[in-house]
Amino acid sequence: MTAIIIIVAVVVLLVFMAIGIYNSLVKLRNNRENAFANIDVQLKQRHDLIPQLVATVKGYAQHEKELLTRVTEARAAAMQATGINDKIQAENQLSSALAGLKVSLEAYPDLKANQNFLQLQNEISDIENKLAATRRYFNTATRELNNKVETFPSNILAGMFGFHKEPMFEVPREERAAMDKAPEIQF
């Protein structure tokens, strides 16, 4: 009789542990999705500002048509991306295109002094800073989920219920190589 009570107690304890682990996995997944929703808000603002920036730059930089087309196409692809992983990839391409635009604009001193351009540049800079903060939060939420998915004993339940390691929002390899180079300063 005592053995049956002990077995039942152990089974009940294991069931409660499994429920706790499952619930924590769900909470972590939802936290990650919420973190990406915060990124989406910033991306929407970014996408809304890009056409204004492109229109302002077009007036000054007629021969930069290819670069402006690349920015516009990257924005369109980013807006059409579905799913977190697709959006991460599309946004990395858009960030790369915007970085190319910033480098190209150095050749236009009049444009850099234009009030509309300066305001747009400040707004985009503000959004980029907010995006960086929300990406850090997203990556923290992703790391917490990945830790839970990969550590014992939660990895057993994670595999059973379809939880898996999720990708971080990282700088693409092409941009990482450029970031490793020292900046060139010209006077």
Topology at a glance:
Elements: H1 2-60, H2 65-80, H3 84-105, H4 109-113, H5 115-150, H6 154-160, H7 173-180
Helix pairs in contact: 1-2, 1-5, 2-3
Explain what you see:
With 187 residues, the protein is mostly helical. Helix content is 82%, strand content 0%. It is built from 7 helices and no strands. The chain has helices at 2-60, 65-80, 84-105, 109-113, 115-150, 154-160, 173-180. Helix 1 (2-60) runs antiparallel to helix 2 (65-80), helix 1 (2-60) packs antiparallel against helix 5 and helix 2 packs antiparallel against helix 3. It is rod-shaped and about 90 Å long. The termini are far apart.
Short description:
The chain is mostly helical and 187 residues long. It has helices spanning 2-60, 65-80, 84-105, 109-113, 115-150, 154-160, 173-180.
Q: Spans with pLDDT under 50 lasting ≥5 residues?
A: none
**How large is the count of helical segments?**
7
Largest sheet: none
Percent of residues in beta strands? under 5%
Let me know the number of strands. Answer: 0
| Large-scale geometry | rod-shaped
Kindly state the percentage of residues in helix: over 70%
H/E element order: HHHHHHH
Q: What is the structural class? A: mainly alpha
Over the alpha carbons, how many angstroms does the gyration radius reach?
24 Å
End-to-end distance: 89 Å
Integer average pLDDT: 81
Keywords summarizing the entry:
187 residues; mainly alpha; 82% helix
